[in-house]
Write a structure and sequence with these properties.
The chain has 116 residues and is mainly α. It has one domain. It is built from seven helices and no strands. Helix 1 crosses helix 7. The longest helix has 18 residues. The radius of gyration is 13 Å and the shape is globular.
Length: 116
């Protein structure tokens, strides 16, 4: 199993994934809200938008902008179940376990922390 650091390095090699970055507005939002709040938002987004067994709008549930976590999800290939399956071999049509959700949030937070 790859470490977070190894995974972030692998993602940097993808032209699509590597193009995501935090804007000054995103960085300001992170500073104002704090990393605990950003983590809480990440946990909620993953729990409600990615973890369910069936996602009616899968592939379209994560906006490209509007919140630092959304950008992190795209940068880390955790934006939809198709990307989770392709990048991490997480099967679609099965609910994510709490451990899987925690690992995804940890990856997103590592990306945000490295890019803030």
């Amino acid at each position: 199993m790859a470490t977070i650091e190894e995974t972030l390095e692998r993602l940097k090699k993808s032209d699509f994934r590597a193009k995501f970055y935090l804007s000054e507005k995103d960085k300001q939002y992170i500073t104002e809200k704090g990393m605990d709040t950003i983590r809480f938002h990440a946990e909620e987004f993953i729990r409600t938008r990615l973890a369910p067994k069936e996602i009616p709008n899968d592939g379209k549930q994560t906006p490209m902008r509007g919140h630092p976590v959304f950008k992190a999800q795209h940068a880390c290939a955790c934006c939809c179940r198709n990307c989770l399956e392709k990048w991490y071999k997480v099967p679609r049509n099965t609910p994510l376990t709490e451990l899987q959700q925690e690992k995804i949030v940890n990856l997103l937070m590592a990306w945000i922390n490295a890019n803030k």
